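Trying the structure run again after the queue cleared.
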Amino acid sequence: MVSKKIGFTKLIIGFVVILSITFFSAIYSSLTIRSNSKTILHINNDIYPFMDKLAKFEQITLNSKMLITNWVYLQYNTDDKKALKKLIAEDYPKIKKEILSSLNTAGHEDNRAELINIFNLMDSLLLIEKDIMQTLVTFEDYQNPIKVFEGEEIIENQVIPLSKQIKDLTEKFILHTQKENDIIRGKMLHSLSKLEKTAFIFGFGMFIIILFSVIYIQRNITVPILKVHNILIKLSRGEIVKQKVDKAEDVIAHMADALNKLSGNLNQIAISASKIGQGKFDTKIQPLSENDVLGNAILEMKNSLKEYSEEMESKVKERTIEIRKQKDIIEAKNKDITASISYAERIQTASLPSIEIIEKELNEYFILFKPKDIVSGDFYWFTKIDDLFIIAAIDCTGHGVPGAFMSLVGLNLLAAIVMENKITQPQMILEELHKRVQSALRQSDTANQDGMDAAICVIDKEKNIVEFSGARNPLIYIQDKQLFKVKGDRKSVGGNQSAAKYFTKHTINIKSPTSFYLFSDGYQDQFGGPNNRKFMVKNMYKMFMENNHLPMKEQKEIYNNTIESWMSITDQIDDILLMGFKL
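Done. Tokens:
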């Protein structure tokens, strides 16, 4: 009867329920937080480095296509050739090994077959590039049009499509991998959100239980105990007590305070976990005691995440400082180099013939001169001697600074040949220029094979004729609405070539108004357009036919706008020189 009145059974059941909920909440929160901590370590130490390696491999694929293209089209670009050899021998094998070795730790072992397929394609691409590298090695190889054409065909039909396929598969693999990584991160965030909701529900449930407990204790324990207390006081004074206690139940007064504190702590933990998940690591966490599993686990997670965050911020700052220092050094060097080359440009510009001479002799003419870099390996030359007017378009080996040095050599030699030695026949000018370039560069004693491709016209207005000779470069003229091509000889100026082969002189009679065009190979070889292909010489002929009836200044504007539009999506690959005049 006493136990029934006191109601210990109900109190014990209530305490068991509260303790069970608290224990389950602590264990669940601790396991969730530990699992998320492992996930964060996996993302930082395995997944992010793996994604960086994939991005590096993708860049190597793009560099491979660019460098092998430069190997074919830019004979003297030794830096790019060294870079391509290093890419094949070191960079690619290294990144391939790193990606395959970290595939399992990054959690993508199931995708190994897909990645192996990409590397097999890359190996095939590098084999093709090695064949090209073995085909185009020496100066003679680059002078062999068949080998050069075969290299260009391989670039167009094999290297570019295969590079694109590798790039597409790599991007697809990266996208797939990123999606899987996003799923892992999403699960972690979902877990934190679920922890937050669970903690809130537990806290609210604890609050309800405590509220009912307080009401129960107040009604069934506190009031009876006070009555017992009053009765005992009266009995101690010897008073006769007639009052009876209807109920007598045990009471633990501080239980309500303890439960209220626990409930409030659970709500505070839910709020703190949410803030930590948002990156607010300054959130205060105060465990209830040294043995508070939930509070200590959240505190450990906060400190761990804060440490990782600070470490990453420190690394980012260090790398940013290093990059800025390197950027400042590069910018300073570029500034000095650009200033030197700009000064060289002024020297080259001053060395070119004065426009006043050609304006005096020819009313209708234009010169479209577009160096690839600040200085040019292409140059134009003209002069008047006696009653003859000589005009030339010259394309030196290389471009930029090396080409500019060759152009200065060519300008000085032409002036000496024509003005001092009075040689005015175009084929003889080329013959003498060929000998003097060989002598100036000591090509018989050294391995130097630099030279020039040239087109020279000698205009005799009294006889109404134009004499032409070309070293590889042609003369195009349009007369009576017909286009005529006068080929240059298959022999360059300079280099170790047979002296027995002489340059040929061609004579054109000006029987009706005629438009003449001289040019280097820069215009026709420029990549661009919707498919990023060469402009091609046939399109130049079509362009001349459509516009030759216009004034030469208008033609220049059309030809300039055409090539600018053509290479709007790519960079200029060579110096461009195009000259025209009407007689």
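Residues 355-582 form a domain with the Phosphatase 2c; domain 1 fold (CATH 3.60.40.10). Worth checking whether this holds up in the mutant runs.
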